[in-house]
Amino acid sequence: MPAVHQPIANSSHANGSATADLPTTVHPITIIPTTQTNTTINPASVPNFFDDLLHQIPLPLWAIYTIFAVGALLILICCLCICICCCKEKKKRHQKKDEKINLIGVNGNTTTALVQPDVADVDYGSTEQQRGKLLYSLEYNAALSELTVGIKEANSLKAMDLGGSSDPYVKVYICPDKSKTFETKVFRKTLKPIFNEQFSFQISKSSLLKSTVVMKVFDFNRFAKHDIIGELRFQLSGVDWNHVIEEWQDLAEPTKLEEEELGEICFSLRYVPTASKLTVVILEAKNLKSMDIGGFSDPYVKVQLALDKRKWKKRKTSMKKKTLSPYYNESFTFDVTFEQIQRVNLVISVWDHDAMTRNDAMGKIFLGCDAAGNQLRHWADMLSNPRRPVAQWHSLLSAEQVNSTLSLKKKIPLRHKLPR
Asked: For the segment 133-143, what is each residue's pLDDT rounded down to a tens digit?
């Protein structure tokens, strides 16, 4: 019998029947198309990209361009500010480097020894902060028992204001008496003022040998306490007064050996020439001296006018209880003609009220054509700005200092003898 050949399909079916019980897992084949990316950007497509981006922003084109322009302007301003700050910082470092130079002077023995620092005496790298130099002169007249102190000029003063400058003036007095205090005029925005002012003190030869001349350089502030830049102290004992002393000296750090803080007072002045009215407004005081046992005082302010060194008119404020920083804001108006204003002195004094005993003077100050320094400047500002109030803070002095400087006559002449 001939052999019968089965089709391949049947044989595969037979084999499959043997494995029909086994589980089969069919994995799908994912065909990932490979695309070739072209890294070369067509320049012609860039404007189309920005145009599409601009059209997708829900704003009109003029608003978008305005925003871009403002942003560019802000970036430019920031860059300019950064450049300015860098320049200021560089200038500040340069100034600090210059402050390290310490100039050392020498004493002269000639008749008028104008002492300047020598190049060989320059001390580089000094860490001490320099306050500047002062040129002064001293001369004593034994026949008149008169000491003349000259404040010539200053140089390389320490900058006390934010703008890198100062408003310097010099205060001069003699210790331990300190009966008179003089001040130079104020120079605005300078570190090398030229004063050329002289002040005379009546002092005997015996007292001269026990005295010390004090010259303090201050920075003027109209509405705050005046900052001290530095000081000089010159002992008068053992000096050869046959010659005039004139020399430069470096300012030293200020001391408080004889300094007595009596407080400050703020008031405004206003003069109207057409109406012949002088208005004084006492605003406030601060840091007054404690006069009572409890550490406080009961202060009030007395306002007095003196005409030709004679007591003329006076008013006073209300009394504030138990305070060292009273606030008044009280106004006083006086009839003063334009001819009289040239001969009037205004005396401001602070008193402590006592119910059982006599009232005590806490501090005093006077302004007018006979004043000097800050007081004269305030008075001059009032006269040069008619009809406008001019306010300023002043440091109080002792009553003895003001009385000895002003030398008021106690007797008041009859009305018909008053100068007109």
From this structure: 999 999 999 89
d(CA 236, CA 24): 122
Q: Provide the residue range defining the domain that includes 318.
A: 264-417
- Cα(307)–Cα(346) distance, integer angstroms: 9
Work out the angle at residue 25's Cα, subtended by the Cα atoms of residues 20 and 30, and round it to the nearest 5 degrees: 145
- Domain assignment of residue 103, yes or no: no
CA 206 to the chain's CA centroid: 41
Instruction: Supply 392's token pair.
Output: 């300023």
Give the residues across from 248 on adjacent strands: 135
Q: Are 230 and 252 in contact (CB under 8 A)?
A: yes
| Residues facing residue 215 across a β-bridge | 172, 232
For residue 245, give the H/E element and its range: strand 245-250
Specify the pairing of strand 181-183 against strand 133-141: unpaired
Query: How much is the pLDDT for 378?
Result: 93
Residue 403 and residue 282 share a domain: yes
The 10s digit of each residue's pLDDT in 260-306 is: 678 999 999 999 999 999 999 999 999 898 887 778 899 999 999 99
Nearest to 305 by CA among 348, 271, 339: 348
At residue 239, the 3 state secondary structure works out as coil
Do 370 and 237 belong to one domain?
Answer: no
Nearest Cα to Cα of residue 217 among 299, 163, 148, 157:
157
| Same domain, yes or no: 404 and 302 | yes
Do 320 and 295 belong together in one domain?
yes
Same domain, 127 and 272: no
- Same domain, yes or no: 349 and 213: no
Letter for the amino acid at 185? Answer: K
pLDDT at 60: 78
In the chain, the number of structural domains is 2
How much is the pTM?
0.51
Q: What phi and psi values does residue 387 have, to the nearest 5 degrees?
A: 70, 5
